[in-house]
Amino acid sequence: MKQLLLQNFTKQFINGQWRDGASSSTIQDYNPYSGEHLLTIQGASTTDLDEAYRAAQQAQPVWEAMPLGEKNQLFERLVKVLEEKRADIIQWLIQESGSTFIKATAEFESSVKLVKESASFLTRITGQILPSYVPNKENRVYRTAKGVIGVIGPWNFPFLLTMRSLAPAIATGNSVVIKPASDTPVTSGLLFGEIFEQAGFPTGLVNVIVGRGSEIGDAFVSHPIPCMISFTGSTEVGRRIGELAGKNLKDVALELGGNNAMVVLKDANIERAAKAAAFGKFLHQGQICMALNRIIVDQEIHDKFVEKFTEIVKTLQTGDPANPTTFIGPLINKQQVERIQQDVHDSVAQGATISLDGTVDNLLMQPIILTNVTNDMPIAKNEIFGPVACIIKAKDEEEAIKIANDSPYGLSGSIFTEDLHHGVEVGKKIKTGMIHINDQSVNDEAHVSFGGEKESGIGRFNGEWAIDKFTTVKWISVQNGYREYPI
Which residues does UniProt mark as catalytic (predicted)? Predict the structure, then answer.
């Protein structure tokens, strides 16, 4: 891994230059599995932030006016650079975010698909010509870039979820300033500076500033230059960003927390449902906004489901994320481990049963399965974001739907049934932005709308929804000939 550290990831990337941050504070980057210190970054100050936004502001109109063919060539080059750096990116995801090899590979491949989808936006941004009630008038509606976009990346799927805002924003004519997560400054930020630089994109179009939220967090949102902030992360932080953005009349795209439910109806294929639940719960140690938080099972098949689910979960290997056979790697930091352990302890005190207990070794948590869970227990109410599965018994379908909806979140979900049409009808009754029939909740396709309801966020990503989010429209009317006025 040492060869990766030779890259210039201890600096800020502002206006095409790699330079030290002006803050007196530093960001320490550690491998969550080994505890190895990866690098130290001199933090960005508000002065650095201002210079990054000003660089993006200068670069944006030049980029938007660039000929389509030249932009297309740059996106083709971007894909080539990504493929050339495939091994490095996957390795960085493993060593910095604790991603297993399975998850890191899937994250990289999804990121490439997203870039290719975003490249298609170059020829998909369209306007309209509309009729008018005024004689000899033509109404034209033009779609253009919004301007400068501020992107705040997450630590759990750092590369993909930062790219999910960055690539569409650039493809629709905007410029970007990225503030990466402090736990993953390389994979949710600095890698993008290097990749877009090597692909030949214009200077100042993509900027990356790494700094403490306490020092530059509010300023990143309230700065007068960005017209939109795209954030992926917790509902708590998202609410603060929404407040600041609203006060300054900025648009937002917020993809926040989830409390996703899998509803297993009494006619479900138990083995298939159990295997899907194990994947959707424990992929990336459950540290996914779309991960299954609650598994709600009809009482008629509850015991058989628990038996099969436990059997499958026991086969999942916990350990070194670099090992290709590992399915569950480390959590991102000690605070996450302690929070999850407290929720498990409190839920057991309220009557939950530990059906499968897992040991904790530093940041490694083996899978835990809780049964006899009710929806008011901490492990069911709170977003787990870790390798703990809670199973809730429902007396019938109506109660299962009620339990699924009894949450302030509404991001993703899942329904298992042998009656596909009925599954769709049940899916319509669950208040969530996404739901999957006979599949688990972790699904994301670059051309399909992605986003939640309630406290899970505002706006939609991907495909035509991203085009709409990262552009604005202007009405220009054209009067052909003299218009008579009643004066």
Answer: 255
